Amino acid sequence: MPSKLLNPVAVMGRAAMDSVFHLGRYSILSVRALLSIFLPPFRVRGYLKQMESVGVDSLFVVILTGAFTGGVFTLQIIYGFRLFSAESMVGPTVAMAMTRELGPVLTALMVTGRVGSSMAAELSAMKVTEQIDALTVMAAEPVKYLVSPRILAGIVMLPLLTAISDAVGVCGGYAVAIVKGLDPGQFAGRIEDIVKLDDVLDGLVKSAFFGYILTSVGCYAGFYCRGGAEGVGRATTGAVVVSYVAILVGDFILTAIMF
Amino acid sequence: MTEAAPEIRVKALRKTFGEHEVLKGVDVTLLAGRVNFVIGRSGGGKSVLLKHLTGLLSPDSGEIWFGDREISSGGSRGLNELRRKMGLLFQEGALFDSLSVAENVSFPPWYHGTMRPSETARRVKDLLSELGMEGREDARVSELSGGERKRVALARALIMEPRVVFFDEPTTGLDPILSTQVDSLILNTRDRTGATCVVVSHDIAAVLTVADQVSLIHDGVMILTGTPKDFRNSAIPAVRDFITGGEEAAALGG
Questions:
Q1: What count of Cα atoms within 13 Å lies in the side-chain half-sphere of residue B242?
Q2: Chain A residues lying within 8 Å of B91, measured CB to CB
Q3: Local confidence band at B213 (pLDDT 50, 70, 90 cut-offs)
Q4: CB-based contact, A145 to chain B, within 8 Å
Q5: What pTM was computed for the model?
């Protein structure tokens, strides 16, 4: 520890080199996994199993998050909008926020916590018990067998989960608005005028990107895990932290480009 | 036994991890259709050599010839072709937790699509029965004992009828009865399929009873390759230390 304090330049230099190394290796792994999707043998069952794990099994937590997010967001803005007699803008604002931002980001963060961490833990456990080496020795390409189905499941299922989250969020907002005395027509009347199809689609494109990030980072952390039980724990935590940061940074960049 | 042809030739193999040079120019020839033991002390480089032979590690320099093909510098495609002719029994089995016993054993033909499902099912049944695991096809890996895992892993290694079977410390952690069973399995594999067996171990008793050829790796170099008799009669101090250490340990244990 003292040497780290005394030599910050060396520490920063090493951290920079490590970052470049990991970024390069991550890029190679994720591109190989993406390309492998289109190469035989095609094991559809493995892909469907991962889609079930990423999509169906995350449904409850995504619905819960979406409903409460829409509800609490309505609760927050309804007071301010009333001050300006702009109650009719509550519905469109909730719908716009859910489709463009809250739906994609919160769904991705929830799925990262549930699925990204479990992918990192599962693959790192396979790594430390030599199961990945066993696949290699059997000439069963581990990237294709383990990583490709997970990444494809993330890319396909996140937009579907986000669409559900968007819809449930608006419904949650609607319910809260009614409870707070807003007229149903006031809430829903202008949504169609203000929220365009592009807003929804751009949000879904973002969520596909987040699905790629959270699955590829989880797989990378597990695939290159080192050490025993401690390494598994480190890989799992690292996957979640890196995914969260990457999703938030990626969200900023994509939002700046799209909207 | 008749003179055996070379199956795997290793020439001047070197490997360094960080500052630590593990293999310092290993030369060895492993014989086809024979049980070849590679022995040495823990940390002596046996497992690193085995990982090179199966293509899990690439050497810093040197050559590995599998028949007439050099594998250490080839691409993964060529290596994967050769791997279909290899089977590896990992020290801990390396079975897939998410699959049953039968699914583990049938994984290689299922993945490669090289056998009809009915043929695969028959082979799985035969192999498990041969290895004393009949009736355990549907068991989960977590329900198996250490010895059972080894047997299932061996069945998985043998299902593609490999030309070479590698055993990574197959008797480590097993009781004497199971160790003897594993030794019999190795001999049975050689006799039944004619496969080349490469056994990485430090089990002196197995070396003297099972091996056709013994190679001793010491401090990153191969210091002896010969028959068990050559090994037993060697005057090389490191070999003598290994034998007497093994015998003393056996005496203490017995």
A1: 30
A2: 130
A3: very high
A4: yes
A5: 0.87
What residue segments make up the domains of chain B, in order of their start?
6-85+163-253, 99-161
What residues of chain A lie within 8 A of the CB of B90, using their CB? 130, 133-134
pLDDT at B254 over 50: no
Burial A92-127, CB ≥16 within 10 A → b, else e: bbbbbbbbbbbbbbbbbbbbbbbbbbbbbbbbbbbb
In order, the DSSP letters of chain A are -HHHHH-HHHHHHHHHHHHHHHHHHHHHHHHHHHHHTTSS---HHHHHHHHHHHTGGGHHHHHHHHHHHHHHHHHHHHHHHHHTT-GGGHHHHHHHHIIIIIHHHHHHHHHIIIIIHHHHHHHHHHHHTTHHHHHHHTT--HIIIIIHHHHHHHHHHHHHHHHHHHHHHHHHHHHHHHHTT--HHHHHTTHHHHS-HHHHHHHHHHHHHHHHHHHHHHHHHHHT--SSHHHHHHHHHHHHHHHHHHHHHHHHHHHHHH-
Domain extents in chain A? 43-258
pLDDT in tens, B129-161: 988 888 899 999 999 988 889 889 989 999 999
Residues in B touching A133 (Cβ below 8 Å): 56, 90, 94
CATH topology of domain B6-85+163-253: Rossmann fold (3.40.50)
Name the residue with higher pLDDT: B95 or B72: B95
Residues of chain B with pLDDT > 70, as a percent, come to: 94
A18 touches chain B (CB under 8 A): no
CB atoms near residue A179 (< 10 Å): 11
For the question of an ipTM over 0.90, the answer is: no
